[in-house]
Amino acid sequence: MPIYEFRCVDCGHVQEVLFTSSSDTVQIRCQECGSEVLDRVISRTSHVMGASRGESSSPSMTTRSCGPGNSCTTLQLPGHTR
Length: 82
Ligand SMILES: [Zn+2]
Hints:
Layout: E1 3-8, E2 14-18, E3 25-27, E4 38-41, E5 60-67, E6 70-76
Antiparallel strand pairs: 1-2, 1-4, 3-6, 5-6
């Protein structure tokens, strides 16, 4: 299963997010400060297993407003679409 690293833009905390094949979209938030604004970290060693299509296998991040003063980051993983 693919693992992606994300860095919180507010406190800089880096965490790994594991994506399971049972969910196409995963909502992530910082484990330290609870911020939902995270940047994906491109690690030197690839944690992506089973992905061999290069850029097409990268998840797309969508940040949208989900409430007053809040924004939600949603990831969509190509290749898991059924
Ligand atoms: Zn944080």
